[in-house]
């Protein structure tokens, strides 16, 4: 499979500070790719370079087969961008917003008309094409933003936190549309997110920290590297149970409000042994495979939930492309 995006030893400095610090990346064509990282990790700066809004200080990157620094116009012709903040004109109708974008992309009138109709249809907005965007709900606006990012028939769509600020139901609807888009058009979706549930649905995930990719793989691969199940055990006496676990099983237990937390390689095998060999009544037990949150914590030392607010966005860097 060819790569839609490749970056090798990519650097970006703001003054003397590296925001992107030797980043390597390979994004398979046609995949849904999640780019995760704590605040300030360099996600937006990386996307800015990949979308030709910012020139790399060093290293190289290719998008849709073209070098971002040497052939920026070719790259721009093949990408779409959905910014984090809404950039729609609220006074215009849905169709007018798309027509404005089609003009920016330089589409001839007839092709523009066909592209607008197709995108409104794909995002299920055809019925609302003549409605001013001011009357749209947040979820509808997001769908229109995505439709607009698609007007130039991009091969790669960049989405900077596409579902931030949406409720769970709307978020699911936006993802339904994105999945459909990927299925029907074979487009590569590259998005940043703080929502680990969304990253779970990705074909591949890269975790970036301090300007470098610290790990990349399918969600299952990343979790298998952590290699542990989380077992939570509630007994008649958790303090005594913790001692027994250390003495009899050589396991270090961490007290939590829910019981004793154990990280073990194979919870399903261990739990029956614990129930018979602990010498204490087990009141409750649960086994959970590692989550992407655990993976994130393992690689960055921070829980993703701690790193949600603030930060630069593509919007602040991306004035030039609108
Ligand atoms: N325009 C700028 N001028 C100076 N420093 C910047 C600028 N944009 C980003 N930085 C710095 O570069 C580093 C990487 O920032 P970037 O916005 O790329 O991270 P991020 O991973 O997108 O973070 P967030 O999740 O908060 O959006 C941070 O230390 C940030 O403060």
UniProtKB/TrEMBL annotation:
Example of a GO cellular component annotation carried by this entry: plasma membrane
For this UniProt entry, the molecular function terms from Gene Ontology, in alphabetical order, are: ATP binding; ATP hydrolysis activity
SUPFAM superfamilies, per database record: P-loop containing nucleoside triphosphate hydrolases (SSF52540)
Q: Mind telling me which InterPro entries this protein's record contains? A: AAA+_ATPase, ABC_transporter-like_ATP-bd, ABC_transporter_ATP-binding, P-loop_NTPase
What does the record list as GO biological process? response to antibiotic
One Pfam match, by short name?
ABC_tran
Entry keywords, A to Z? Antibiotic resistance, ATP-binding, Nucleotide-binding, Transport
What topology does it adopt in the membrane?
Peripheral membrane protein
Q: Superkingdom of the source?
A: Bacteria
Which ranges carry the ABC transporter domain? Answer: 5-235
Q: Where is this gene product found?
A: Cell membrane
Protein family:
Belongs to the ABC transporter superfamily.
Q: What is this protein called?
A: ABC transporter ATP-binding protein
Q: Which organism is it from?
A: Streptomyces nodosus
